[in-house]
Amino acid sequence: MDIEKIKEILPHRYPFLFLDKILNLEENKIIALKQITYNEWFFIGHFPDFPIMPGVLMVEAMAQASGVLIYKNLVIKEKDSVPLFLGIEKIKFRKTVKPGDTLIIEAELKNKISNIFKIIGKIKVNDQIVCEGELILGFEKREKILQN
Fold it and tell me: DSSP label at 19?
């Protein structure tokens, strides 16, 4: 799945879309890719002399991959539903991510209760885990979000 297909599912756009491609999509698992370049907007301030990707943006990339997984495979098909990040647990950052790294983002469904999904996520660079943890996601109707 290329970036145009991803944009049909996720509401995120540049500079906050952290998926370039979906490499594999199964019923309960997804593998996505994000190429990190020196031109990423966050390197301007994080950090100019030692550019590393902020950990929260790695978690966001896992959440976006999880949103695609849920939308495509777990019967969330409504066009007016927005994926929402509800929580994170047990997040660990193992290594830094630098310009030139290719993130391989994996997300797998752990369990589902009603419209809430718990996902096990991890990101690898060169087959080494750089970030891992559990994410909690849900979907909400756009009009309900706008009412709040």
Answer: -
- Find all residues with CB under 8 Å of 42, minimum gap 6, and list them: 53, 54, 57
Tell me the helices (H) and strands (E) count for the chain, helix number first: 3, 6
Q: Domains in the chain and their CATH numbers?
A: 3-147 (3.10.129.10)
Question: CA–CA separation, 33 vs 19, rounded Å?
Answer: 6
DSSP letters, 38-56, are TT-GGGGTS-TTS----HH
Q: Which residues contact 79 (CB under 8 A, 6 or more apart)?
A: none
For 62-82, the pLDDT digits (tens) are 999 999 998 887 665 556 677
> Mean pLDDT throughout 33-37?
98
Catalytic residue check, 12: no
Catalytic pick among 7, 12, 29, 46: 46
Q: How far apart are CA 137 and CA 130, in angstroms?
A: 21
Asked if residues 36 and 53 have their Cβ atoms less than 8 Å apart, the reply is: yes
Distance CA 68, CA 119 (A): 12
